[in-house]
Amino acid sequence: MKKQEVILQTENVQVRVIELRPGEVAPLHHHTEVTDDMFGVSGEIIVIAKNPEEKTVLTPGVHCKIEPGRVHQIINNLKNEGSKYLLIQGIGKYDFITKNA
After folding, report:
1. The model's pTM
2. Domain 3-98 listed as CATH 3.30.200.20
């Protein structure tokens, strides 16, 4: 992750703006309790969710919601510049459980 700006962080909620480096790929993962609400801020972020397979392209203003337990992956689709998204996570205890591809 290139950088992140924490807007709000409590025991049960996190709100961050995250910037991924050009071409950066986050590992496949899921969260036990929290829902991920993602909103495109700049660039182009691809969100791949499993079971069922679903692909969302986050561009500025586009929203994607990932429920607890659903395996997903975040990718900066741009090869020459960073991309940003707003991530709202809650309500519950945060964890990040990686999965094998």
Report:
1. 0.91
2. no
